[in-house]
UniProtKB/TrEMBL annotation:
Transmembrane annotation, as ranges: 178-196, 216-233, 266-284, 289-311, 331-352, 364-388, 408-432, 444-468, 474-493, 505-527
Keyword Transferase (UniProt): no
Name of the protein in question: Amino acid transporter AVT1C
Natural source organism: Nicotiana tabacum
Main location: membrane
Membrane topology: Multi-pass membrane protein
One Pfam short name: Aa_trans
Region of interest (Disordered), residue spans: 1-67, 91-122
Name of the coding gene: LOC107769961
Length: 532
C-alpha cells in the first residue's frame, strides 16, 4: 500500500499508516523506555507543572496539520522549479530538503536526559475522521529564513492588497471624518499583531495561529480559528474572481454570449473566462514560482496608484472638492471596507516564525502598517477628489476607458488574481484533503477534483453575489473583525492570565467590544445591501 501511494503522489508525499499491532508495539516500547529512563529523568529534567497556557508534551497539532507549511507561500521569496501536482512536492525548492520531524510530532518535546535514549512514539489526539492515516513532513520542505528586509516586504505585500481599490468608495460612503476610522483600525490591528507575537512567545511549541487557539482554548479553539482563517482565505478568492470579472467586463463591455439558450452578459462571460484561466494554476503542486510572482503585488499596487495619480493630475479628470463630513447611515459599509484593508493576521505568525531576527518583528509591523496606512489614505483622498459621488467600489472602473493609463491599470488588476488565487485557495484545499477518510482517496485525481470544486464554487458565488464592495464589506465586518481584532485579544488574555497588566486587560477588552459591535453592525449592513 505504502509503495503504491508513494509512486502515485511522488517521492515527496507520504502517508504513514499505523496498524493496531504497530500502535500496541509503540505503547510497549514507550513503557519500556519510560522504565529505563524514569530513574534518571528527575536528575536531568526539571519538573513542570501542567499549564493551560502551554501545549503539553503529549499534545500534538491535529487538523490542520498542513497550515503552517501551506501558509509559508506568503513568505516565499526565492523562485524554485515549477511542476504540476503529480510527482512534485508542495513548495519544494531545488535543493534537497533537510529531514524534518513529522508534522504530528508534539509541539513541545519532552525533556530528555543526558544519556542516549530511543525516541518514543506518542498517540496524538486527531480531529480528522482518519483514524490511522496522517501526513508526513516529507511532503513539505524546511521553512525559509527571511532577512529583515524580506520580512518587511512580505508584510507590506500581505497588507497592501486589493482593499486599496475600495478606499475612495469607503470615503464616499462614510464621509471625510471616516478617515479617522482608517487610522483607528490601523492602530488597533498593529497592536493585535504585537499581541499575536506575544502569544507565539508564550510557549516554544506555538508556531501558527491555530496553535495559539489550541494553547488558549484547547482543541475547540484550534478548530474554530482554523475554520475562520480558511473562510477568510476562501472569501478572498471570491473577491479576486469578482474583481477580475468586473475589470475584464469594463475592458470588453460589449461582450455577449448565448450558450444552450442561456444569455450571458459581459460580467458573466468574463467570470467564466476568468475561472477557466485561473483553474490550471490551482492544479500546480509546486506553487513557489507563483508565490514569487505574487510577491510582486507591491509593484502592481504601485503601478495602479501611479495610474490613478496620472489620470488625475495629467489627464482630463482633475481633482474636485466635495463630499460630506460624516454619513452615519453608510458608516457600517465604510467600517467593513476599512477593516478589510488590515486583514493580514493569518500571515503574521508565519512571517514572525520565518525571520532570522524575530526580535525585530515589531518594527516590521510598524513599517508595514505605516506604509499601508499612508497608501490607503492617499488613494482614498485622491480617488474621491477625482470621482466624487460617482466613485465606484473599484476606482479602476472610474478611469476613462479611452486612456492608455486606464488600460494599464485595468490589466494590472486583471492579472493580479492569476498569481494570487492559487496561493490563497491551496491552504483550504490541503485542509480539506486531511479529512479524506481513506488513504486510497488521496490520489492525484481526488486532489484535482477538490481544487476544481473549490474554484467553481467561488464562480457560483461570484455570479450569485457580484457586488465587490458589499462582499468586501461583509468579509471585513465578519471575518477580519474576528481574526484581526477579537481573537488575538481573547487569546492573549487567556494565555497571559495573571501576567497581564490592567492597561493591557482594559485595552484588549475595549478592542473586543469594538470588534463585536463593528462586526454585528457591519455584517448586517453588508447583507442587507446585497439583498436589496
Amino acid at each position: 500500500m505504502g509503495m503504491r501511494l508513494d509512486e502515485e503522489f511522488g517521492a515527496d508525499r507520504v502517508l504513514q499508516i499505523e496498524t493496531d499491532d504497530e500502535e500496541n508495539e509503540a505503547d510497549d516500547y514507550k513503557i519500556e523506555d519510560d522504565d529505563d529512563s524514569g530513574s534518571d529523568s528527575t536528575l536531568h529534567s526539571p519538573v513542570h507543572e501542567p499549564s493551560h497556557s502551554q501545549i503539553g508534551p503529549h499534545d500534538s497539532p491535529t487538523w490542520p496539520q498542513s497550515y503552517r507549511q501551506s501558509m509559508n507561500m506568503f513568505t516565499g521569496v526565492t523562485p524554485p522549479s515549477l511542476s504540476f501536482l503529480r510527482g512534485s512536492s508542495f513548495l519544494r525548492s531545488q535543493t534537497t530538503p533537510t529531514p524534518q520531524p513529522s508534522i504530528c510530532k508534539p509541539l513541545i518535546s519532552s525533556p530528555r536526559s543526558n544519556k542516549e535514549e530511543v525516541p518514543t512514539l506518542t498517540h496524538p489526539t486527531r480531529l480528522s475522521v482518519v483514524s490511522s492515516a496522517r501526513f508526513s513532513a516529507l511532503e513539505l520542505p524546511p521553512s525559509q529564513q527571511c532577512s529583515y528586509t524580506q520580512s518587511v516586504l512580505n508584510a507590506i505585500n500581505a497588507l497592501c492588497g486589493i482593499g486599496i481599490l475600495s478606499t475612495p468608495y469607503a470615503l464616499k460612503e462614510g464621509g471625510w471624518c471616516s478617515l479617522f476610522l482608517l487610522l483607528l483600525f490601523g492602530i488597533i490591528t498593529f497592536y493585535t499583531g504585537i499581541l499575536l507575537k506575544k502569544c507565539l512567545d508564550s510557549s516554544p511549541g506555538i508556531e501558527t495561529y491555530p496553535d495559539i487557539g489550541q494553547a488558549a482554548f484547547g482543541m475547540l479553539g484550534r478548530i474554530f480559528i482554523a475554520v475562520a482563517l480558511y473562510a477568510e482565505l476562501y472569501s478572498s478568492c471570491i473577491e479576486y474572481l469578482i474583481m477580475m470579472s468586473d475589470n475584464l467586463g469594463a475592458i470588453f463591455p460589449s461582450a455577449r454570449m448565448v450558450f444552450a439558450g442561456i444569455h450571458l452578459d459581459s460580467y458573466q462571460m468574463c467570470a467564466i473566462i476568468s475561472t477557466l484561466v485561473i483553474l490550471p494554476t490551482v492544479w500546480l503542486r509546486n506553487l513557489s514560482l507563483l508565490s514569487y510572482i505574487s510577491a510582486g503585488g507591491v509593484v502592481a499596487l504601485i503601478v495602479v496608484v501611479l495610474c490613478l495619480l496620472w489620470v488625475g493630475a495629467i489627464n482630463e479628470v482633475g481633482f474636485h472638492s466635495g463630499g460630506t463630513a460624516l454619513n452615519i447611515a453608510k458608516l457600517p459599509v465604510t467600517i467593513g471596507l476599512y477593516s478589510f484593508c488590515y486583514g493580514s493576521h493569518s500571515v503574521f505568525p508565519n512571517i514572525y516564525s520565518s525571520m532570522k531576527e524575530p526580535s525585530r518583528f515589531p518594527s516590521v509591523l510598524l513599517i508595514s502598517f505605516s506604509i499601508a496606512f499612508f497608501s490607503y489614505f492617499g488613494v482614498a483622498v485622491c480617488g474621491f477628489l477625482m470621482f466624487g459621488e460617482n466613485t465606484s467600489p473599484q476606482f479602476t472602473l472610474n478611469l476613462p476607458a479611452k486612456l492608455v493609463t486606464s488600460k494599464v491599470a485595468a490589466w494590472t488588476v486583471v492579472l493580479t488574481p492569476v498569481t494570487k488565487y492559487a496561493i490563497t485557495i491551496t491552504p483550504v484545499a490541503f485542509g480539506i484533503e486531511e479529512f479524506l477518510p481513506s488513504p486510497q482517496l488521496r490520489t492525484y485525481g481526488v486532489s484535482i477534483l477538490i481544487r476544481t470544486i473549490l474554484v467553481f464554487s467561488t464562480l457560483v458565488i461570484s455570479l450569485t453575489v457580484p457586488y465587490f464592495g458589499s462582499v468586501m464589506s461583509l468579509i471585513g465586518s465578519s471575518l477580519v473583525m474576528l481574526v484581526s481584532l477579537i481573537l488575538p485579544c481573547a487569546c492573549y488574555i487567556k494565555l497571559s492570565k495573571d501576567g497581564i497588566t490592567r492597561f493591557q486587560l482594559a485595552a484588549c477588552t475595549s478592542i473586543i467590544m469594538v470588534g463585536v459591535v463593528s462586526a454585528v453592525i457591519g455584517t448586517y449592513s453588508a447583507v442587507t445591501s446585497m439583498a436589496n
